[in-house]
Design a protein that fits this description.
By secondary structure, this protein is mainly β. It has helices spanning about 15-25, 105-110, and strands spanning about 15, 30, 45-55, 60-65, 75-80, 85-95, 100-105, 115, 120, 125-135, 145, 150-160. It has one domain: Deoxyuridine triphosphatase (dUTPase) (Deoxyuridine 5'-Triphosphate Nucleotidohydrolase, Chain A). The protein is about 5% helix and about 40% strand. The strands form two sheets. Strands 1, 2, 3, 4, 6, 7, 8, 9, 10 and 12 form a ten-stranded antiparallel β-sheet that branches. The longest helix is centred in the N-terminal third of the chain and has 8 residues, at about 15-25. The protein is globular, with a radius of gyration of 18 Å. The N and C termini lie far apart (about 40 Å).
Length: about 190
């Protein structure tokens, strides 16, 4: 017995520039603000926002720090080996058929920045700025951080089917939904 499933295969894969643009300029923008100059052939550059979270030597928790007064000429300096959480300027509203992945800009990686590869966004994740993990891999020199720094890019993946459970409806809850600032680990379970 042969069962035929109907699929729209031409729409599966990484979104092209014109597909990203059409989903960001419509009535329900996938990314806000959308800046056309940040659009790449298969991704959208994202900008570092005004808040980071730094380690507190006297406490396990991270402390939120406002770096909005820092600029390219007067940056906040990320020391060698130091780890911070940053936020994107952009707010994301992913539809139920699109997931996304944050990756560093290659120029940032070559300068010594590192990312913990935890930048996956499930379909349906919405109302939130992306929290990004940033580390200075250099041994002797600090790296600059400031609002407006082009820190990475989002690659959008178009799924061939809508998932049974999108991000807001997943088992265990949507811990990082509707957050407009950098977020520490708030998951109830610390196990992976």
């Amino acid at each position: 017995m042969l069962i035929l499933l109907q699929h729209n295969y031409e729409s599966v894969g990484v979104l092209a520039d014109w597909q990203i643009r059409s989903r960001c300029e419509g009535d329900s923008p996938m990314v806000e603000p959308f800046v056309l100059d940040l659009l790449n052939p298969a991704s959208l550059d994202v900008i570092l926002g005004p808040y980071i979270m730094v380690e507190d030597p006297s406490n396990f928790d991270l402390i939120k720090v406002d770096i909005s007064e820092h600029t390219e000429d007067n940056p906040w300096l990320l020391d060698p080996g130091e780890f911070v959480l940053g936020e994107t300027r952009e707010t994301f509203n992913l539809p139920d058929t699109i997931s996304a992945q944050f990756v560093l800009k290659s120029s940032r990686a070559r300068a010594g920045y590192d990312h913990a590869l935890a930048g996956w966004a499930d379909p349906g994740w919405a109302g939130s700025k992306l929290t990004v993990e940033i580390k200075n891999n250099r041994r002797h020199h600090p790296l600059p951080l400031y609002p407006g720094l082009k820190i990475g890019q989002m690659v959008f993946h178009w799924m061939d089917e809508t998932p049974v459970l999108n991000y807001p409806n997943q088992r265990g809850g949507a811990h990082y939904m509707n957050h407009q600032t950098v977020m520490p680990d708030i998951a109830e379970s610390r196990s992976a």
